[in-house]
């Protein structure tokens, strides 16, 4: 399973401040990818986000697309200003190239305790045998 990151990782904060990019909020949640005999499991760390903030889809190439959008409130607080603002998440998109041996229609996901769990069931050996086609030679 190959992960393609769509967001860019910028240089450290000092560079961002010099270039006045400190209001640009790009983030790349950490991801664990695990495998059992029955499925693949992806875990993404998404603290503060809910299932309403997450969108999963399969693109035209058959890749899993994980998108997260968090609406931020633009409240002006005259009595307070940020001295450092590092954890605002507004938008994230990541593409995962899926292997051939899976059931794309059975992918499931849930958000619990700041973790997005994505379960990708594998095709069993029996299903692979059933999918094999015999070609008649004429």
Describe this structure in words.
With 138 residues, the chain is mostly beta strands. The chain has a single domain (2-131), classed as Immunoglobulin-like. It has two helices and eight strands. It has helices spanning 13-18, 125-131, and strands at residues 2-5, 31-35, 39-45, 54-58, 64-69, 91-97, 108-112, 115-121. Strands 1-6-5-4 form a four-stranded antiparallel beta sheet, with no helix packed on it. Strands 2-3-8-7 form a four-stranded antiparallel beta sheet, with no helix packed on it. It is elongated and about 85 Å long. The model is unreliable at 6-25 (pLDDT under 50).
What's the structural blueprint in terms of helices and strands?
Elements: E1 2-5, H1 13-18, E2 31-35, E3 39-45, E4 54-58, E5 64-69, E6 91-97, E7 108-112, E8 115-121, H2 125-131
Antiparallel strand pairs: 1-6, 2-3, 3-8, 4-5, 5-6, 7-8
- What structural class results from the helix and strand content? mainly beta
- Report Rg: 20 Å
Percent helix:
under 10%
CATH topology annotation? Immunoglobulin-like
Mean pLDDT: 79
Total domain units? 1
- Percent in strands: 25-35%
Number of strands: 8
Q: Which word captures the global form?
A: elongated
* Unreliable stretches: 6-25
CATH class wording:
Mainly Beta
Q: Sketch the topology as an H/E string, one letter per element.
A: EHEEEEEEEH
| Contiguous helical run count | 2
